[in-house]
Design brief:
With 751 residues, the protein is α/β, with parallel strands linked by helices. It has 22 helices and 21 strands. It starts with 10 loop residues before the first helix and ends with a helix.
Length: 751
C-alpha cells in the first residue's frame, strides 16, 4: 500500500492531501469525468494513505515507503475486507420504551427511510432525538414497536433470534462511540472475536486479525490488553474488529465523539474509503462537520426523520450466505475460562468450596471401596480376626501345653489350623562381633527366643524395621529385636542384618519361675539374622528374637531328651477358625474344655464402628460443602452476569447467539468445577494416604498386616472431577440463562 509522508511542520500540506483524497473519492463515487461507480484503485490507495499518516497522540510517524517501479501495479490491501453491500428500508417504524411501572418514552415516530446498497448516509440530530435507536434497529440489535425494518432483504423485526444473530454476524458491523472492547482481552483477541464466534480456525483468524491491525497501524500492539490503549487506539481497534467478518453494512455510532481531530479524521477517511469500495455506511453524529463526509444526510428531530435528499430504491434481493460454523467448543472453553480468570480472588474462593466438597466425597468413595476390599482380602482370613487364643487356666500346676493338648484342640469343629507358641529364655552372643561398631559387650545379653506362627497359616507377622522374613518354617534364620541388637553391641540395629548370632537356652519357658524345664545340658544353636523388628512384637516386650515355628520344635526336641523335659512345650495355643462366623462358637467349645480364651473380634468391631462414624461424618461434610459450593458458584455466576452485562451486549452485537452466550457462561462454571474437582481429588489422595498410614498402625495389632482402607484410584479421581463439573454447570445454569436472554440494545446501555 502506498504511504504518504507529511511534514509535521506543514499542517496545510496535510490538509490539502486529505482534501484531495476526499475529492477524488467523491468524483469516483459520483461517476465524474466519465468514470464508472466502481472504486478507482489509485484514489483508494491515497485514501488509505491518508488514514495511515494520521498520528494518534502516542504514535510515531511511519517510515517513507520504498520507491515503486513505474510499471508496477499497486497492491490493494483492502481487497478482502468487505462482503456484499446491504440495503436498508424502514416502513413507518416506531419504537417505544417503558412498561407498566416505567416511564413511557417514544424514541421513534413513524420513520420511513430507504438506504440503498453502497450509500454513505449520515444521520444527524441532537442528543435524545432517536439516532442511536434507529441505528440499533438497522443493526438488528432491537425490534420496532410498530412498522417494519428490512436489511439485506430480510424483515429484521420478524426474524427469530438465531437468524437475527446470523445477520449481525455476517452482514453488519457496528462501530460504537465507546468502543465496547473487552479490556481484559488482548487487541488481537478483540479483533478476532467475531471470527471466533463464526467458528473460524485459530490460524486463519490470527492471520486476518493481524492484517486488519496492520491496516489501522496497530500491528505492534497486537498482544497489548485493550484496556491499556489510548482512546484513538481503541477506536482503531474497534474499526478493525468491525471489518473482521467482511460486512456489507457498517454502522458508525458517533465514531469520532471520543477522539481528537486528527484521529477522528483518520476514522472518517477510512469510512469514506470503505464506502468507495462498495460498503453501505450509516453514520450517526450530532456534528454537521462530520456529516459532510457523507453523500446524503438524514436529520432526526424528536423521533422523526427528515430526509434532506431522497435515497435510491433499496435492492432487496441479496445473495444468500452459508450459515457460519459458529463457536467451536475449544474456543468456548477458552473464552469461558478466560472470563473466570478475570476475578482471581472470587474464583479461588468458589473453587475452594468445590474442592472441600469433592475431597470429602472422594474420601467417602475411597473408604467404601477400601473397606470392601479389606474385608474380602485373603490376609483377613488368616489374621487375628479369625483366631482364638487359648491359655492355661489360672492356678494350673504347669502353665503350659504339651503336644497332646495341641492335637486335641486341633480336632475341634471349624478349626482350620492350630499351632502353639514355643518360648525359651537364654543368652545371645555374636559369632563374629558387631561389624565396625565398637567393642563387644562384657557379658552375653539375656533374652527370649520365641516361635513365629506358621508362615502359611497366619498373616499375623510383625512389621520389619529392616531385612526380610525367614524363607521357611525350618530354616535357621531369626528376626532380632532392636533392643537385643543394641545389647549385642550394634550401634544401629539394621547393621545386625546378615550377621550370625548364637543362642544358648537356659530355660525351656518364657518365665522360668513358672515351669520346671531347667537346662542342665545346654545345646547352642547359631542363627542368621535376616530381619530386625521392634521389641513390641515380643511377649511382654521382652528383648530377644523370633524364630521359625518348625525350627523351634526341632530345638525343643533336641533339648527335651538330655534335660528330661516331659511337658510345658507351648506357652499358648492359637486356633484359626474356618470363617469369621464360627469364631464365637469355637471359643465357646474351648471354654467348655476349661481353658481361657481370647478373640480379637471385639477390637475389629470397634474398628469398624470407628470407620463407619468417619464415613457418616465425611458424608455430612461433603453434602454441606457441596451445597455451599453450589450456592457459591450460582452467586459468582450471577454476579458475573451483572458485571458483564455490557460485554454480553457486545457479544450479541457482534453476532453471538443466545446459545453461544449460554455456553460461554456454562463453560466458565464448568472450568471452576473442574478446577475444584482436580484440587479436591488431589487433597483426597493426600488425606487418603495419611489415613492409610494411621489405620495401618491400628490394624496391624489386630490383623497382623496393614490394609488400604482408602482406595483412591484413577476411577475415584475421574468420578470426582466429572461430578464437580456437572454440579458447577447445574449451579451456573440459571445465571447463564439470564445472560443468554439479555436484550443486546439494553445490555449495551448498561452501566
Amino acid at each position: 500500500m502506498a504511504t504518504v509522508v507529511t511534514d509535521p511542520s506543514d499542517p496545510s500540506g496535510s490538509k490539502r492531501r486529505r482534501r484531495r483524497a476526499r475529492q477524488n473519492a467523491r468524483a469516483i463515487t459520483n461517476g465524474e469525468n466519465g468514470a464508472s461507480h466502481e472504486p478507482a484503485q489509485d484514489a483508494a490507495v491515497e485514501a488509505a494513505a491518508v488514514l495511515a499518516i494520521e498520528p494518534s497522540p502516542a504514535a510515531e510517524l511511519p517510515a517513507p515507503a520504498p520507491p515503486r517501479l513505474p510499471d508496477a501495479a499497486p497492491v490493494d490491501e483492502f481487497r478482502d475486507l468487505l462482503g456484499q453491500a446491504v440495503g436498508l428500508r424502514l416502513d413507518s417504524v416506531s419504537r417505544e420504551f417503558g412498561g407498566r411501572n416505567e416511564m413511557h418514552v417514544t424514541a421513534l415516530r413513524n420513520v420511513t427511510l430507504d438506504i440503498g446498497p453502497g450509500e454513505f448516509v449520515a444521520i444527524v440530530g441532537p442528543s435524545g432525538c432517536g439516532k442511536s435507536t434507529l441505528l440499533a434497529l438497522m443493526g438488528g440489535l432491537d425490534r420496532p414497536t410498530a412498522g417494519h425494518v428490512y436489511g439485506a432483504g430480510l424483515a429484521l423485526g420478524e426474524l427469530p433470534d438465531r437468524e437475527l444473530s446470523d445477520y449481525r454476524l455476517q452482514r453488519v458491523s457496528t462501530i460504537f462511540q465507546t468502543f465496547n472492547l473487552i479490556p481484559s482481552m488482548t487487541v488481537e483477541d478483540n479483533v478476532a472475536l467475531p471470527l471466533t464466534l463464526a467458528g473460524v480456525e485459530l490460524e486463519e483468524r490470527r492471520r486476518r486479525a493481524r492484517h486488519l491491525l496492520a491496516l489501522v497501524g496497530l500491528e505492534k500492539r497486537a498482544r497489548t490488553r485493550a484496556g491499556r490503549l489510548s482512546g484513538g487506539e481503541q477506536q482503531k481497534v474497534a474499526v478493525a474488529r468491525a471489518l473482521a467478518n467482511r460486512p456489507g453494512l457498517i454502522l458508525a455510532d458517533e465514531p469520532t465523539g471520543s477522539l481528537d481531530s486528527a484521529a477522528g479524521e483518520g476514522v472518517l477517511a477510512l469510512l469514506e474509503d470503505l464506502n468507495t469500495r462498495g460498503a453501505t455506511v450509516v453514520l450517526v453524529t450530532h456534528d454537521p462537520e462530520v456529516a459532510r463526509h457523507s453523500r446524503r444526510v438524514v436529520r432526526m428531530i424528536d423521533g422523526n426523520a427528515i430526509e434532506l435528499e431522497a435515497g435510491r430504491p433499496t435492492v432487496r434481493s441479496q445473495e444468500p450466505l452459508d450459515p457460519a460454523p459458529r463457536l467451536h467448543w475449544r474456543d468456548t472453553m477458552k473464552v469461558g475460562l478466560g472470563s473466570a480468570g478475570r476475578r482471581p480472588l472470587r474464583t479461588t474462593l468458589t473453587t475452594t468450596g468445590v474442592a472441600i466438597g469433592i475431597a470429602a466425597l472422594s474420601l467417602i468413595l475411597a473408604l467404601a471401596g477400601g473397606l470392601q476390599q479389606a474385608l474380602d482380602a485373603p490376609a483377613l482370613a488368616t489374621s487375628q480376626v479369625h483366631q482364638v487364643a487359648v491359655y492355661p487356666v489360672a492356678g494350673a500346676r504347669t502353665p503350659a501345653f504339651d503336644a497332646a493338648t495341641l492335637a486335641t484342640l486341633a480336632q475341634l469343629p471349624h478349626v482350620r489350623a492350630a499351632w502353639g507358641e514355643i518360648g525359651m529364655t537364654g543368652t545371645f552372643s555374636a559369632v563374629a562381633g558387631p561389624a565396625a561398631a565398637g567393642a563387644a559387650p562384657a557379658a552375653a545379653p539375656v533374652g527370649a527366643l520365641v516361635s513365629l506362627p506358621p508362615l502359611r497359616s497366619s498373616s499375623g507377622v510383625p512389621t520389619l524395621i529392616a531385612g526380610r522374613m525367614p524363607s521357611s518354617d525350618i530354616v535357621t534364620e531369626i528376626l532380632l529385636t532392636d533392643t537385643e541388637a543394641v545389647a549385642l553391641g550394634y550401634r544401629s540395629p539394621p547393621g545386625a542384618v546378615g550377621t550370625r548370632v548364637k543362642f544358648t537356652a537356659t530355660s525351656g519357658a518364657l518365665v522360668p519361675a513358672l515351669t520346671p524345664n531347667r537346662v542342665s545340658q545346654p545345646v547352642s544353636m547359631t542363627f542368621l539374622v535376616v530381619g530386625i523388628i521392634s521389641t513390641d512384637f515380643m511377649p511382654a516386650g521382652t528383648p530377644g528374637a523370633l524364630a521359625p515355628d518348625q525350627l523351634m520344635r526341632v530345638y525343643w526336641i533336641t533339648l527335651s531328651g538330655p534335660n528330661g523335659w516331659k511337658t510345658g512345650e507351648y506357652s499358648s495355643v492359637t486356633l484359626l477358625a474356618d470363617s469369621g462366623l464360627s469364631v464365637e462358637s469355637l471359643r465357646k467349645r474351648v471354654d467348655a474344655l476349661g481353658f481361657q480364651t481370647q478373640t480379637f473380634g471385639d477390637q475389629f468391631r470397634n474398628f469398624e464402628d470407628l470407620l463407619g462414624k468417619i464415613r457418616v461424618a465425611l458424608l455430612g461434610l461433603a453434602i454441606v460443602a457441596l451445597l455451599l459450593a453450589c450456592l457459591g458458584i450460582a452467586n459468582t455466576m450471577y454476579t458475573a452476569v451483572l458485571e458483564r452485562t455490557k460485554e454480553i451486549g457486545v457479544l450479541k452485537a457482534l453476532g453471538a447467539r443466545s446459545r453461544d452466550v449460554l455456553l460461554l457462561f456454562l463453560a466458565e462454571a464448568a472450568g471452576i468445577g473442574i478446577a475444584g474437582g482436580v484440587v479436591g481429588a488431589l487433597v483426597a489422595v493426600g488425606l487418603g494416604r495419611l489415613g492409610n498410614a494411621a489405620v495401618d498402625r491400628l490394624t496391624q495389632s489386630v490383623t497382623g498386616s496393614g490394609f488400604d482402607v482408602f482406595q483412591t484410584n484413577a476411577l475415584v479421581v475421574l468420578v470426582a472431577v466429572l461430578l464437580a463439573a456437572l454440579l458447577s454447570m447445574v449451579s451456573g445454569l440459571l445465571p447463564a440463562l439470564r445472560a443468554a436472554v439479555q436484550d443486546p440494545s439494553r445490555a449495551l446501555r448498561y452501566e
